[in-house]
């Protein structure tokens, strides 16, 4: 790692060393802490609502929503441990929690982001199979197979994080008050991370959604006559919801990944030229993404919106919180359910 970059960023943690950062204007600290407090609160509440909604509601409890719950768990991971530690570092202007907390925090942050992109990729493939290859969907995404897919997602996610411990890339960065992936440790490793953990999944998801969009346009223009009957409004709305989840994820995480790609090409030359405000903005955009998915579900999906309200009301009577919802417009469908976020009509 270039020594000047490491020292400037305060990104080398040794033992239980105390790492401080340069003092910042009060408004900057207030802004960063406010964004993170809001993100953490909405992340915890929103993703809790998503998971409980699927547990309670028969109409939402289908194989496709297994990936939605898995994605909610990935978003929840950062809110319960790493974000509070980042807030502690912001308020104390440095890392005072030692190397173990730093490594665990960095590991969980990596687990969250890679788990998120892998789950978003799985959701896109799920949509693609359901809409474009419906005859094979039930066999491919049976309950048993779906659970295997979810297990594989998290196994691959953990496997993807492990090399960081050998490369030594999980370090404290004083610019963002976080123990996180350090882009300047190894150029080749940073490039591999961006390509394998961001560009390749984004390409796969883009392909899946492009094929779905083509099919939707063909159906609407009545060009294709052999398409499966009844590309229902609810199916299209489900696809649109998860497409928006993908777009927002790509928008929030692209700046940080492209900065990493640029720095990896020439760390000594490009690293110092990255404006600190741009680096901080890209990080907190990425952090903010973890609270958005639950909001999108609530805005675009009636079942989730109704279930959110029921859960919030049930919090006053906790014994009803995990009771199954089967009436009042949310009973199980007699027809084949959509793979996820079913029935937005």
UniProtKB/TrEMBL annotation:
GO terms for molecular function: melatonin receptor activity. It is found in: Cell membrane. PROSITE patterns: G_PROTEIN_RECEP_F1_1 (PS00237), G_PROTEIN_RECEP_F1_2 (PS50262). Pfam families: 7tm_1. The keyword Disulfide bond applies. GO terms for cellular component: plasma membrane. It comes from the Eukaryota. Its main location: membrane. The chain crosses the membrane at residues 35-55, 67-92, 104-125, 146-167, 187-217, 238-265, 277-300. SUPFAM superfamilies: Family A G protein-coupled receptor-like. InterPro entries: GPCR_Rhodpsn, GPCR_Rhodpsn_7TM, Mel_rcpt_1C, Melatonin_rcpt. It is a multi-pass membrane protein. Residues 326-345 are annotated as: Disordered. Residues 46-297 form the G-protein coupled receptors family 1 profile domain. Keywords: Cell membrane, Disulfide bond, G-protein coupled receptor, Membrane, Receptor, Transducer, Transmembrane, Transmembrane helix. Belongs to the G-protein coupled receptor 1 family. This is G-protein coupled receptors family 1 profile domain-containing protein. It comes from Chiloscyllium punctatum (Brownbanded bambooshark).
């Amino acid at each position: 790692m270039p020594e000047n970059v490491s020292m400037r960023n305060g990104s080398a943690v040794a033992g239980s060393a105390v790492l401080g950062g340069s003092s910042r204007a009060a408004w900057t600290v207030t802004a960063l802490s406010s964004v993170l407090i809001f993100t953490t609160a909405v992340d915890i509440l929103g993703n809790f609502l998503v998971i409980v909604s699927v547990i309670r509601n028969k109409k939402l409890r289908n194989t496709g929503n297994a990936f939605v719950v898995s994605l909610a768990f990935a978003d929840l991971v950062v809110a319960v441990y790493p974000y509070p530690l980042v807030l502690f570092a912001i308020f104390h202007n440095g890392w005072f929690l030692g190397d173990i907390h730093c490594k665990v925090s960095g590991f969980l942050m990596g687990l969250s982001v890679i788990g998120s992109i892998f789950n978003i990729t799985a959701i896109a493939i799920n949509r693609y199979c359901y809409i474009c290859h419906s005859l094979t969907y039930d066999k491919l995404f049976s309950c048993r197979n779906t659970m295997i897919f979810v297990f594989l997602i998290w196994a691959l996610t953990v496997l993807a994080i492990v090399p960081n411990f050998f490369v030594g890339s999980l370090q404290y960065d004083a610019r963002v008050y976080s123990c996180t992936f350090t882009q300047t440790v190894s150029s080749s490793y940073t490039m591999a991370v961006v390509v394998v953990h961001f560009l390749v999944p984004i390409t796969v998801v883009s392909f899946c959604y492009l094929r779905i969009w083509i099919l939707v346009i063909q159906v609407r223009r009545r060009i294709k006559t052999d398409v499966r009957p009844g590309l229902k409004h609810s199916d299209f709305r489900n696809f649109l919801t998860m497409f928006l989840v993908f777009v927002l994820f790509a928008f929030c995480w692209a700046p940080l990944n492209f900065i990493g790609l640029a720095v990896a090409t020439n760390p000594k030359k490009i690293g110092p030229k990255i404006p600190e405000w741009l680096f901080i903005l890209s990080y907190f955009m990425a952090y903010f993404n973890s609270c958005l998915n639950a909001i999108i579900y609530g805005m675009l999906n009636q079942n989730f919106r109704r279930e959110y309200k029921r859960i919030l009301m049930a919090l006053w009577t906790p014994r009803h919180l995990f009771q199954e919802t089967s009436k009042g417009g949310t009973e199980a469908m007699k027809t084949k359910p959509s793979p996820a976020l079913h029935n937005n009509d």
